[in-house]
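SAMPLE LOG
Freezer: B-3
Tube label: C17
Construct: single chain, 158 aa
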Amino acid sequence: MKIAEAKAKVEQWLTEEGFKVADDPHPDCAFRLSADDGQGRSVSILQRPGRIDQVEVGVNVELESTETAKISKMQPSERMELLWNLRFQLINLGVGFQGPELPLRAITIETVVYYDGLTKHEFIHRVALVRRAMVATVWTLNRYLKEPPRSLGFQLPR
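STRUCTURE (predicted):
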């Protein structure tokens, strides 16, 4: 499969599922797309030049400065519990991640689909997986910060 073909397929599938898809070029990517669900939640779809047999699906959960400040005021044991819970939660969901680490500013969540398994079913499943991991991460942060959960659904757009 060629890069252009993989890009065209994922764009089509995302559009069919109700996402608003836009090119989001990056110098380290053969292609990068942003797929927004219409409610301001987006995932990135990309392919790195050195990994031409796979498509990555990812999201970056960025904390607001007020959230980072609240975390820094937690007891050290509570901060470590938060980090361990986030890490094990992401592992249990079956996604890759970068972070969480202190100071907690962002967590990148990602998964890949290899070309030999790149079907609409598998791809959209991976998009939903990353979105569920994002919601679980945000809600875990809300719980530790003693805030009401942000209104984030994880159904695919219709």
